[in-house]
Design a protein that fits this description.
The complex is a heterodimer of chains A (about 280) and B (about 280). With about 280 residues, chain A is an all-alpha fold. Chain A has 13 helices and no strands. Classes of the chains: A mainly alpha (about 280), B mainly alpha (about 280).
Chain lengths: ~280, ~280
């Protein structure tokens, strides 16, 4: 009998073993992180002999970390607002308008998706230096917002491709103006891609470090606070905060996954984002 | 159906934003790369090619660039070697657990990049997990300290980070391989390995190209993993840029290197776009 690859067949043991090894590789650091957040000896010593909540207690009393969490939340919400405000029209423009330089525009919008953060960060740093703008949380917000327009545009554009224009046409024929049609027909139809984009932008911004690294003023975002501590030395508190964030991310990602399944029946999350970043084939 | 007013309303705001915050910064970066720094550390707008001459003449720069590219090539290859068979396994043998397994691959992406890199430091260090385990099973007697602070540590960490990125587009491509093509191939007498190499693999090439481009470009521009785990022998080109923008204070030279990286990235994008078109199934 032929071994046709289809889901009813058993796979080769080598493929299974490979999958097992890759999963072990992907989860080893996460397991270590969670384990060490409860390790009484901090980060030294293996296997841990004594488990404790001390690091979590210390974390609760650590104002600098919580300040940076608040800063990161502010940045993430601002980035979400900026990138949706410009990303949604950008997707509409790519879908519906013809203008000179459209191909270049598309390239530019999507470039930060694949460009190493250092280039986006440095080019913005030079812009702010050139325009005598002081670095602060605001500059980080502008940086994240600009870089993540790419995410909003891609996600919304994918939604637009599936949208039936007849509804919008009917709305316009029946006398609604473009503004009304946009808010009452276009946006509700794009609800899921927009929420998906917003969630994605939020989590990406919360974890972003390469762009923030160059645009930081006096106040730290959480990843930069963590970076500062890692550079100074080893602090098990970092394991504790990371474990907590991992918990939240887990909820966010499962939520998002459900949303996508709901919207499309399948969830190749991220794949199309990467495809569009690389090939920009609209 | 969309009026001129509508089309300009969706085009002009994002276009303006993108010009100010993406195009202009690249132009400023371009200009900086032709300026110079006086010995008293002020940047003067004196147009010259000295930065580029220095890049070509000083071995430090192009040797580091080559080493970074070699690290990025290894990360790209290892990520694909880990990601491709995993994607194949999930796509063809995932069965009912497909969704769960897919989520398990992308969940690590939601754990802070920094924290995962740091976790590898905990694993590879001389009193780390790996050494403890190796000593526990009496494979070694003295802690091995060549693991951390080496290009090996950087490649390992970056491979860990970019394996899901390599997996995603490959998985999407494999999911889109028409199953009846595979059946046809079997019916016509092809062996499983012929079916793989002549039908499945060619159809997955666009995904491989997207994943490879991501892994290569993003690891080429990384500067945090080398700082955390690389040691002196694991320094990458972006680390030089960071120091030129920091303590070494030579923004023009740093801008020239960044621009070089930008050019490498954009040319790779053009190349992969061509490759994807060449191999895309339609």
């Amino acid at each position: 009998m032929m071994r046709a690859p289809n889901s009813t067949m058993r796979s080769s043991p080598w493929l299974r073993l490979h999958a097992l090894i890759v999963f072990a590789f992907l989860y080893l650091p996460i397991a270590v992180l969670i384990l060490y957040s409860f390790n009484a000896q901090g980060v030294g010593g293996f296997p841990p002999h004594h488990l404790t909540f001390d690091w979590y207690r210390q974390l609760l009393a650590d104002d600098a970390i919580w300040d940076s969490v608040l800063n990161s939340l502010q940045v993430a919400f601002a980035a979400m607002a900026i990138s949706l405000t410009f990303g949604i029209p950008a997707a509409l423009a790519l879908d519906r308008a013809k203008f000179p330089g459209k191909a270049l525009f598309r390239r530019l919008v999507l470039l930060p998706l694949i460009l190493p953060g250092i280039i986006t960060g440095l080019s913005l740093l030079m812009l702010f230096q050139f325009s005598h703008t002081n670095l602060s949380l605001l500059t980080i917000m502008l940086g994240h917002g600009t870089a993540l327009i790419s995410v909003a545009t891609t996600e919304v554009f994918a939604g637009l491709q599936k949208l039936d224009r007849a509804q919008e046409e009917a709305s316009l024929d029946l006398g609604a103006n473009y503004w009304q049609t946009f808010w009452r027909i276009t946006v509700p139809n794009l609800k899921l891609p927009i929420i998906g984009a917003a969630l994605l932008i939020f989590t990406l911004s919360m974890d972003e470090i390469a762009v923030s690294f160059f645009l930081i003023g006096r106040e730290n975002t959480l990843p930069l606070e963590i970076w500062g501590r890692l550079r100074r030395g080893i602090t098990p508190e970092i394991n504790a905060i990371s474990t907590i964030i991992f918990g939240f991310s887990l909820i966010a990602i499962v939520l998002w996954y459900r949303l996508r399944i709901h919207a499309e029946g399948k969830a190749e999350i991220g794949a199309e984002l990467m495809e569009s970043a690389v090939s920009a084939e609209y | 159906m969309f009026s001129r007013a509508y089309r300009s309303a969706v085009t002009v705001p994002p276009l303006t934003w993108v010009i100010i915050f993406l195009l202009v910064p690249y132009v400023i970066m371009f200009c900086y790369s032709f300026w110079s720094v006086t010995p008293s550390q002020t940047i003067v707008h004196f147009w010259n090619l000295d930065n580029y001459k220095e890049l070509l003449q000083k071995p430090l720069y192009w040797e580091t660039l080559l080493r970074s590219m070699w690290i990025a090539v290894r990360v790209m290859l290892f990520s694909l070697l880990l990601g491709y068979p995993l994607a194949y396994f999930l796509s063809f043998y995932g069965g009912k657990r497909k969704d769960l397994l897919y989520q398990m691959v992308i969940i690590p992406l939601w754990v802070s990049y920094l924290v995962r890199a740091y976790a590898w430091k905990t694993i590879l260090g001389s009193d780390g997990v790996l050494n403890a385990v190796l000593q526990y099973v009496h494979l070694i007697h003295e802690p091995a300290n060549f693991l951390l602070y080496s290009p090996f540590a950087v490649v390992l960490t970056l491979t860990h980070i970019y394996t899901p990125f390599a997996f995603l587009p490959v998985y999407a491509a494999l999911e889109h391989v028409p199953r009846n093509l595979i059946e046809a191939s079997h019916d016509l007498g092809a062996t499983p390995s012929q079916t793989f190499w002549k039908v499945i693999f060619p159809l997955s090439i666009p995904g491989v190209v997207a994943g490879a481009t991501f892994a290569f470009v993003l690891s080429l521009g990384d500067f945090l993993a080398p700082l955390l785990l690389g040691g002196p022998s694991g320094i990458m080109i972006s680390n030089i840029v960071v120091s030129l923008f920091g303590a070494a204070y030579n923004w023009p030279l740093g801008a020239a290197i960044s621009l070089g990286m930008l050019i490498i990235v954009v040319s790779l994008l053009f190349l992969s776009e061509r490759l994807e078109k060449r191999w895309s199934y339609s």
